[in-house]
Request: fold
Amino acid sequence: MIRFYYHPTPNPAKVALFLEESGMDYEVVPVDTRKGEQHAEAFRRINPNGKLPAIVDTDGPKGETRLFDSGAILLYLAEKHGDFLGEPEDRPELLSWLFFVATGIGPYSGQAVHFQMAAPEGMDYAINRYRREVERHYAVLDAHLDGREFILGDVYSIVDMSAWGWLDRANRALPGSNDALEAFPNLRRLFHTVEARPAAARARKVGADHAFKTDMDEDARRAMFPSNYPQAS
Reply:
């Protein structure tokens, strides 16, 4: 059984998609980041970094096994399940593109959203920096997808799931149009191909029965961006 610590944001969405694609047994454990539940001692024992997603595999190699970071979780679960990894000869490409999403598209998209949606005014340099890097990463992956159905070629894998999680927020990372992916036709096609899968519709329903906090008030900002506030001595 997989205990899946979840908040409705892009990185947990990737894991939700995998769990629905694979049919693995799992239990959703909501963690409300706007209420600061990610800082609870019990959760920090699972993810010392206090971020979502995280999982506990109750039937792991050492009994209960914790994992955190969406890329690590996807790789672990795919290896455990024995699917969505491509062919053995695809391993170098799979690892390269999985880390490309983890170190490029994901964090730059997150920072683009933050500086445009949550930061105070006057951050024009940061906004330009992160928007341009999102566009650059999109262009790299768009060029790679030319002539390929999926990132590894003709096989659907955890890399496509990982990209889907953040491409879903393209209009927030690059606001100003109704379709931020229009300029990246291969990337847009990939997103809609994954989005059309039945498992994607099921993944979007994960956690829907939990009332996550939606207000971005001062308590939520302190919970989500604690490093912005001086620590009490």
